[in-house]
Every structure is written in C-alpha cells, then in structure tokens.
Specification:
One of its GO terms (cellular component) is membrane. The chain is mainly alpha-helical. The chain is built from 21 helices and six strands. The protein has two domains: about 350 residues, MFS general substrate transporter like domains (Growth Hormone, Chain: A, Up-down Bundle); about 60 residues, no CATH class. β3 and β4 form a beta hairpin. α1 crosses α21 and α3 crosses α11.
Length: about 475
C-alpha cells in the first residue's frame, strides 16, 4: 500500500526545509553572529539616552519669583520670605516697596500678583529654566514628552512597513543617520522625530538580530540585545551629573551615534528577509564577505537612575534560561503580575507613611526588575508570533497600542494632584490585568520562525485541530 503525504505533512516539511537551508547558509550561532549581535545591541545605548534624557532635561531646580532690578541687593532668603508666602507662581506686589538703610525690604503690599519671571539656583540649565516652563506653562513640559511618545507610537508601525519592503539594515542605518541632527530650536517637533527614529532603530535592530541566528539562540540574542539598555541608564545618569546644562547633555548623547553610521559598511541584511526576496545568493556573499573582513519613586534622581539601570541586568540574565526552558507565555504573565503586585504594595506606604522611603524604593526596584524581564520577553514573543514577511509590520502594529499608552504616561503622574497614590495604583492595576491577558496568547517557545503568512496560517490550523482533538 502506498501512502501519500498529507497537506499538513507537506507544509511541515516545507517549513523545516526552509529553516534548514537558512541555518546551513549562515549557521545558527558563531563568531560572525556574535560580533554582529554585539554591534546591534550597542546601537541601543544612544537610543536609550534619547528616550531617558527628558528626566534630566526637565529636572526640578530651586526657583523663586525674580527680583526687580532695584532689589538685586536683597538676599534671596529675605526676598522669598517677604514676597512669596505661598509658592513661586505668585508674589506680593512690590511696586511701592523700598529698601531701608540696612537693605531690608519694607512697604511690601499684601496684594498678590502673578509672577512673570523667575530666578533659578546656579545648578546648570534645564528646559524649565530656559523656557520658563512653570506654573501655567508647566504642562508644556508634558506636551514635549507626549510628542516624543507619539513618534514612538507611529514609528513602530511605519518603520515596520518600510523595513519589510526595503530590508532591516537600510532602515536601521537611515534611522541612525537622522537621529542625531541638531533639534534645539524646534524641541517639540524634533522630539517627535526622535521618538519615531528611536523606536525604529530599536525594532529594526532587534528583528535583524534574531533573524541572524537560529534555534534557541534567538532567545539568547533577543534578551542580550536589551542588556545595553540598562547600561545606557547608568551612563546617562553619570553624564547628567557632570553636564548640568541640558544643551551640553544633548550634544553629548547625540555625538556617539555618528560612530554607528560606519556600521553601514559591514552590517549584513537579514538572511531571512533576503530569502523571502529570493536573494539566497546574497546570504553567502554576506556571510563570507563579513567573515573575511571582519545596545517618581522619590529620593535622589541620579541614584534612582543608576538603580533603574542596574536592576535590569539580573532581570535580563535570568530571562534567558527561563525563556529557553519555560517558553514565553507564563514567564511574561508572571513577571507582569508580580510587577503589578509590587506596585500595589507601594500604595499603603505612600498613603500612611512618610518615613519609609527605603521600602518604597525597594518595591519600586522589584517592580522595575520584573517589568524589565517582561520588556525583554515581549519583543521576542511578539516577533515569533508573526511570519518573516510580516514580522516588522506585526511588531510595529503591536507597538501602536503601547505607544498610545506611553503618550498618556506624562499625564498619568499628574493624577497625584488628586491622590498621591493614584499613579502607582494605576500601574499596579495595569500590570496585573496585562499579565492575566497574556495567558490568552499561544505559546511560541521552541518552534521555528515562520517565513510566510501561508505557513503561519497552516501552523494555526494544526494548533486548532490539536486543541479540538484534546477537548473532543
């Protein structure tokens, strides 16, 4: 009796054949992949700086309503004490005030007027001090960050479309070329551009890094790709400590990006993308060519920034063996839920105690560590859910919802004016609900990357039939 192959077996064999061809052409992991993955990961560092720099661009400084020229000789302590009993947004009317022989301020009216100009402590320059983003203009600082996050939301989707049409490398390097142009005169507009560029660089680099390797090395390189993010947090904290002028800091974080432009000449195109473009010959040319030519918890802002970066290191390191052994879905769900629970524990301490800052910081770091693990798992999981022909579009589209949520982040912390525990309470709720929702997604761990939409559909049908068989 002769048995013919079923469509299911044909599809499975076709998947395995394509996977074997690509793996034989480039190898699953070697010196070549290590070097390129390392370079791609380093590109994350300047992107991280641009994402995180608003923390220092808009840092709070000691401020008071400016003294009129005739009162420059009055000390700041006396000026604040005599004219600003409430805050620096309003001041006592000093139009009829004068100085006595001892330079004391007298005849200060009790009528309050709005402050129009401010003086700042000599601690560098920020967006707040340069553009007077105080009082009724305070919301403009949030608006500038919203522009950046809007660029993140749009960039993830559009970059995916461009990258799937033109290849990962060209998109990645063109984004790097634009990311470091001067943008001080049009801060908000160019923050929008930087948001678009930063997420495009990160996504294109991530997809390229996992498509350069095979097998379980996709998990390893996907997680390791994010290690420079934590390093970037620590570095920019140190840079911001020494460079207190926001313009100098911006120049410092932009300049290193120019070095990565040279990588255009030795970064390969994604071999899986080339396969889909019927350019398998380029796989061998790329391989041999490169082998032969061989990135508001309280306390001190700078210390917290360093801690934020440091806790990501163990989170990322632990994620690698967990993802290899336990898959994607449950580790992602649990890390998000634990992060939410840690945020929930912060609420009573912020509500009933003002002397346990160390407890709040500890739970904040636990939450940050868990969400960092989630952040490492999420792109690997998301990328594996889509076939190669749609992977960048899929990852980008998935980022749109996240981008919209990010646009609301600057305003989330304004909820503290209603109730100081409300922002962290919202984060706790989102973490727990988000973790539970992950359980409804399919597991992708240990399965080969699908190359075409037809293969993905066939796989989904096989999974559906398997599920029906289990419950029938």
């Amino acid at each position: 009796m002769v048995f013919g192959m079923t469509d299911e077996n044909k599809n499975k064999n076709h998947d395995d054949d394509e996977e074997d061809i690509i793996d034989k052409a480039i190898g699953k992991f070697g010196k070549w992949q290590f070097q390129l993955s390392f370079i791609l990961a380093l590109v994350n560092i300047p992107c991280t700086w641009h994402i995180f720099v608003p923390t220092f661009h808009g840092r709070e400084m000691e401020v008071w309503c400016a003294r009129p020229p005739k009162f420059y000789n009055v000390s700041t302590e006396i000026w604040i004490d005599k004219t600003q009993p409430n805050d620096f947004c309003t001041t006592n009317d000093t139009s009829n005030a004068s100085l006595d022989p001892l330079n004391n301020l007298v005849n200060v009216s009790r009528n309050m007027v709005d402050c129009k100009q401010w003086e700042f402590a000599h601690d560098g320059s920020t967006l707040i001090s340069e553009f007077d983003l105080l009082c009724d203009r305070k919301s403009l600082l949030n608006m500038a960050e919203m522009f950046f996050l809007a660029g993140v939301a749009v960039g993830g989707l559009i970059c995916g479309i461009i990258s799937d049409k033109c290849g990962r490398k060209r998109t990645l390097l063109s984004c790097c070329a634009i990311a470091f142009v001067p943008y001080f005169e049009l801060y908000c507009a160019l923050r929008l551009m930087l948001g678009f560029i930063s997420v495009s660089v990160v996504f294109s680099g991530f997809v390229l890094s996992i498509e350069l390797v095979g097998g379980h090395w996709r998990t390893v390189t996907g997680i390791c790709y994010l290690f420079p993010v934590s390093i970037g947090y620590c570095i920019i904290s140190a840079m911001a400590w020494f460079l207190r002028d926001w313009r100098h800091l911006q120049l410092a974080i932009s300049a290193p990006g120019l070095l990565f432009l040279t990588s255009y000449f030795f970064l390969p195109e994604s071999p899986r993308w080339l396969w889909q473009q019927e350019k398998l010959i380029n796989v061998y040319l790329v391989y041999y060519g490169l082998v032969l030519n061989l990135e508001n918890i309280g306390g001190d802002i700078y210390i917290n920034s360093v801690l934020t970066g440091l806790v990501e290191v163990p989170a990322l390191a632990v994620s690698i063996p967990i993802l290899i052994k336990k898959g994607r879905r449950w580790p992602l769900a649990l890390s998000m839920i634990i992060s939410g629970i840690a945020c929930a524990f912060i609420v009573p301490f912020k509500m009933f105690s003002s002397t346990h800052q160390w407890v709040i910081t500890t739970f904040s770091m636990i939450s940050k560590m868990c969400i960092s693990s989630s952040n490492a798992i999420m792109p690997v999981f998301t990328a594996e859910l889509y076939p190669t022909t749609l992977r960048n579009i899929g990852v980008g589209a998935s980022n749109v919802a996240a981008g919209i949520a990010l646009m609301l982040v600057p305003y989330l912390f304004e909820l503290k004016t209603i109730e100081k525990t409300l922002p962290v309470g919202v984060l706790a709720f989102c973490g727990i609900i988000g973790g539970l929702s992950v359980l409804f997604l399919p597991e992708t761990g240990g399965k080969p990357l699908q190359e075409t939409l037809n293969e993905k559909v066939a796989e989904s049908r096989r999974a559906s039939r398997a599920s029906q068989a289990v419950f029938s």
